[in-house]
Write a structure and sequence with these properties.
single chain, 8 helices, flat, alpha+beta, 3-stranded antiparallel sheet
Length: about 260
């Protein structure tokens, strides 16, 4: 098994991608599986790309570690690269995800990057909530990390929602503060749900919903009463409903009681 670090270059734009690939055949035609590189291959065609083997390793872990040394924050900031995330991100190879966050860019591409990535800090990359949690460090900085981040599990990082409440001040501005905040305890800050009144529109919608529910109940009741007044009858393989008041007349004309012949 070969564990290679490769570079795929777009011959038309000179944009490139660096990745790791484990294979039995170095010339298997593999060009990359990154989000952007796959889109570009589909757009330009495989013939527009050239792959170079940069290095070969005896284990995949060694290859990913080497990738992490090359595909760093400066590398992915290069406009000519198709790499979106930092190199070396492979939990299957035992490489730590500590300090790594799942993000989404403006084009909807999902990938992982460092919490110190300038694009993440500036808001260009948005944290993805799935399997992540918003935390605060000892210096009061907030950011997102994986739910299994060791610093969160050991209490070094504290979830910003835990032990807090969303409040509103006298000017109507909302914020989140600790539940033991003196301003919240003395009533200066009020929980956003406390004393909340329904608008006329909300009242109207609730009223309509209630009326619809009552109508549904009334209809079911009528249908139930209707069914009680009717019975099944059959004749020559045909079945039908019959009002109990007309049952004898049907029986006299050859109909039988029940859904099937006796």
């Amino acid at each position: 098994m070969y564990h290679i670090l490769y570079k795929t270059t777009n011959l038309k734009t000179n944009s490139y991608y660096i990745g790791v690939h484990s294979t039995e055949n170095k010339n298997d035609g593999y060009l990359g599986s990154g989000t952007v590189i796959k889109k570009k291959i589909a757009y330009y065609g495989r013939g527009s790309f050239k792959k170079e083997i940069l290095e070969c390793f005896s284990t995949a872990k060694e290859a990913y570690i080497r990738e992490s040394e090359i595909v760093d924050e400066e590398f992915i900031a290069d406009k000519n690269t198709y790499n979106l995330s930092l190199g070396g991100l492979s939990s299957s190879q035992g490489i730590s995800f500590e300090g790594i966050v799942s993000v989404k860019d403006s084009e909807g591409n999902f990938f992982k990057t460092s919490i110190t990535d300038p694009r993440y800090i500036s808001g260009e990359l948005v944290g993805v909530a799935k399997s992540t949690i918003t935390v605060k460090d000892k210096e009061g900085r907030t950011f997102k990390v994986s739910e299994d981040d060791s610093r969160y599990l050991n209490g070094e990082l504290v979830g910003v929602v835990k032990g807090t409440v969303t409040v509103k001040d006298s000017e109507g501005k909302c914020s989140r503060v600790p539940k033991n905040d003196p301003r919240y305890l003395n009533g200066e800050l009020v929980g956003v749900t406390r004393g909340k009144k329904m608008t006329s529109e909300e009242k109207r919608k609730r009223s309509e919903s209630s009326i619809g529910h009552k109508k549904e109940k009334s209809t079911k009741k009528k249908m139930s009463g209707y069914a009680k007044e009717r019975v099944w009858i059959n004749k020559d393989g045909k079945t039908s409903h019959c009002n109990k008041n007309n049952l004898q007349e049907k029986l006299d004309s050859g109909w039988n009681l029940g859904m099937k012949p006796a």
